[in-house]
């Protein structure tokens, strides 16, 4: 679905902004970059600022006009810091724009268009758009650097996508933070009871103490790694206990 969302940069002046925009896109899962008559491209500065997103710079398509860049799109949102006189529907809140665009992107290509560093989008280019969006910002200084505007709106798109029911998004989780299975927890509690009995802490199976400890560990929610640390500790204590009769 994110692959249906295109980022279009119109006549970018600084190649570094193209690279930084590619990086901003890739961090948010976007891959389709189209450049309308960039002043200088390809360029080592674009690749340098892309860092790990050079693949997006390498696969970016260069076209001759905005109309060409968005001809297959069903919705085209122009990002603009200033309101123009054109009566296009306007999203005042970027998250509303993002939800709407992500919705359409489930079926068809859509585009988010960014203007030139010096003078944004021309009125003719805004006519190629179906909507406009502004990033609310300081009224005295509300114009963001191009690639930072891409970052803010790309983040909104990614957020709208991952919150969509059925997106299947799971935050990456290091394996050592995974929760133990019920079986692993069961083995831990068996081990704990055995050590409590063999050490003389309890003299016979004692359901109340065991229940309390189970509740304590249920609240603590130890990870697999922490549980195996505790198992190691129990095993070490156990090795110092007299043999079972
Ligand atoms: N001087 C230009 C702004 C250029 S900034 C002007 O006045 O229009 C380059 C691009 O970044 C803009 O064309 C727009 O696409 C995007 N951008 C910068 N700040 C923005 C904001 N607050 N809201 C939406 N887009 C913004």
Automatic annotation (TrEMBL):
<comment type="similarity">
    <text>Belongs to the class IV-like SAM-binding methyltransferase superfamily. RNA methyltransferase TrmH family.</text>
</comment>
<dbReference type="InterPro" id="IPR004384">
    <property type="entry name" value="RNA_MeTrfase_TrmJ/LasT"/>
</dbReference>
<dbReference type="GO" id="GO:0008168">
    <property type="term" value="F:methyltransferase activity"/>
</dbReference>
<keyword id="KW-0949">S-adenosyl-L-methionine</keyword>
<dbReference type="Pfam" id="PF00588">
    <property type="entry name" value="SpoU_methylase"/>
</dbReference>
<keyword id="KW-0489">Methyltransferase</keyword>
<dbReference type="InterPro" id="IPR029026">
    <property type="entry name" value="tRNA_m1G_MTases_N"/>
</dbReference>
<dbReference type="InterPro" id="IPR001537">
    <property type="entry name" value="SpoU_MeTrfase"/>
</dbReference>
<keyword id="KW-0808">Transferase</keyword>
<comment type="function">
    <text>Catalyzes the formation of 2'O-methylated cytidine (Cm32) or 2'O-methylated uridine (Um32) at position 32 in tRNA.</text>
</comment>
<feature type="domain" description="tRNA/rRNA methyltransferase SpoU type">
    <location>
        <begin position="5"/>
        <end position="154"/>
    </location>
</feature>
<keyword id="KW-0819">tRNA processing</keyword>
<keyword id="KW-0963">Cytoplasm</keyword>
<comment type="subunit">
    <text>Homodimer.</text>
</comment>
<protein>
    <recommendedName>
        <fullName>tRNA (cytidine/uridine-2'-O-)-methyltransferase TrmJ</fullName>
        <ecNumber>2.1.1.200</ecNumber>
    </recommendedName>
</protein>
<dbReference type="InterPro" id="IPR029028">
    <property type="entry name" value="Alpha/beta_knot_MTases"/>
</dbReference>
<dbReference type="GO" id="GO:0032259">
    <property type="term" value="P:methylation"/>
</dbReference>
